[in-house]
UniProtKB/TrEMBL annotation, chain B:
Protein name, per record: Sigma-70 family RNA polymerase sigma factor
Family statement drawn from the similarity comment of this UniProt entry: Belongs to the sigma-70 factor family. ECF subfamily.
Repeat is among the record's keywords: no
Limits of the RNA polymerase sigma-70 region domain: 22-89
Domain RNA polymerase sigma factor 70 region 4 type, first and last residues per copy: 115-166
């Protein structure tokens, strides 16, 4: 855009009226800055434009000015500090809100953590108990399978020891396996003894009573010592913990093999 | 002019008294333009007030090196008025579905009141009309040549001639003024 084009197309006038695009405006301003003639022409145009407007001025009513000044007064002193205050306060509210949330969150998490810790402890204890149970069950199972294999073996013979006059209701089932040299007895039907006495089992070998072991009060099914060449099995009542020699007067049952 | 620049720099520093003074100087000229564009007294007053609020708020955008204060204020007033007219035109169109063609229907103001005066009056009718449409009714050249029912090129030359004649008549009155001053002295 040069001087000739600007003059020919009445661009100055459009510039005056603000009808050019921002790019065109910048171009015209650039030319006006360097071209004194054109600048002069524009000044004339602008001056006449203003004169024309002043010649055709119409006085607005006084209220317009009053309302305008009121509006400015209302807006001016308040807007800036209010907004600053507002944003400041909003930030303060926001910050305290976040802080409160964090605090409550931390407390909540702390209680949760405490709960979780207690639960872990309980679980660990239960785990320990379960492990012990499993150990016990495994050993029980081992015993039971061992007993069962003995009891079920075709080489096992079963002898029933029935109580005599001392203990008429007593009944002990014994399983003797000469091949594996094991003896298992079922004492479910032995009458209960007091704490000072135990049942003890004996094997008779050539007229000598050999100790087969004290019968455990807790178990119903238990293994006793196998004695070679035993002729009979005998059960006596002995002082707690067992005796070196059987008390024959306290014999409650026996069976010949 | 110097005084104006001083006032404007005061306004840029939010001096209410300066705005009041500037309003007294320029509001009649701007009101004359606005009311001739929208032809509604009440709306023209609202738009004038709105124009000065914008002047107050955006005073920092005014650059005295680029032109007179009046030119800057005129552009603000014209844009506000044209926006208002566009909006109300759309409103009328959507309300009764008929196209709002006859602007004269909407005039609630005595045409005598809006008649142009000053050096403009000394111009030929078509020159006067051309300047009125562009300067006082806010029409673009493209809108104005249709309004006058002449080709765009013809309309542009009307404007050029009108401005030249106006320049001459202002110069003449300036000469007369100088002559009188000389006489008095």
């Amino acid at each position: 855009m040069d001087k000739a084009y600007i003059i020919e197309h009445g661009i100055l006038e459009l510039y005056l009226l603000g009808e050019l695009t921002p790019e065109e405006q910048i171009q015209v301003e650039r030319v006006l800055n360097v071209d004194a003639d054109l600048k002069n022409e524009f000044d004339f145009l602008e001056t006449n434009f203003e004169k024309m407007a002043f010649e055709n001025a119409i006085n607005p009513p006084k209220e317009v000015k009053e309302i305008l000044l009121q509006k400015i007064k209302k807006n001016q002193p308040k807007i800036i500090p209010l907004e600053r205050n507002k944003t400041y306060k909003t930030f303060l509210y926001l910050a305290s809100g976040i802080a409160a949330c964090l605090l409550i969150g931390s407390i909540w998490m702390f209680t949760k953590l405490d709960e979780a810790n207690t639960q872990i402890q309980i679980v660990e204890e239960q785990n320990q108990l379960l492990l012990e149970d499993i150990k016990a069950l495994t050993s029980n199972l081992e015993y039971a399978s061992k007993y069962l294999s003995i009891v079920n073996s075709p080489d096992t013979e079963q002898y029933i020891l029935k109580g005599n006059a001392l203990a008429p209701e007593a009944k002990v089932v014994s399983y003797v396996n000469h091949k594996s040299k094991s003896v298992i007895i079922n004492t479910a039907q032995l009458p209960k003894l007091d704490a000072e006495h135990d049942y003890q089992m004996w094997a008779d070998v050539d007229g000598v009573m050999i100790d087969m072991g004290v019968i455990n009060k807790e178990d119903n099914l238990l293994a006793m010592n196998y004695i070679d060449d035993a002729e009979s099995l005998n059960i006596t009542i002995e002082p707690a913990g067992g005796n070196d020699h059987p008390t024959v007067s306290k014999l409650i049952t026996n069976v010949y093999l | 002019m110097q005084n104006d620049n001083l006032l404007i720099s005061k306004i840029q520093n939010k001096d209410e008294a300066a705005l009041s003074e500037l309003y007294d100087s320029y509001s009649p000229a701007l009101y004359g333009v606005i009311i001739r564009m929208c032809k509604d007294e009440q709306e023209a007053q609202n738009l004038l007030q709105d124009t000065f609020l914008t002047i107050w708020e955006k005073s920092l955008q005014y650059n005295p090196e680029k032109g007179k204060f009046y030119t800057w204020a005129y552009r603000i007033a014209k844009n506000k008025t044209l926006n208002f007219l566009r909006k109300s035109k759309n409103l009328i169109q959507t309300e009764d579905l008929s196209v709002y063609t006859n602007k004269e229907d909407n005039i609630n103001i005595d045409p005598e009141y809006l008649q142009l005066s000053g050096c403009l009056k000394q111009l030929e009718k078509h020159h006067q009309r051309a300047l009125e449409l562009v300067y006082f009714n806010g029409l673009t050249h493209r809108e104005a040549h249709k309004e006058m029912d002449v080709p765009l090129g013809t309309f542009k030359s009307y404007i050029k001639q009108a401005l030249k004649k106006l320049q001459l008549s202002y110069n003449k009155s300036m000469l007369w003024l100088l002559f009188f001053i000389e006489m008095i002295e």
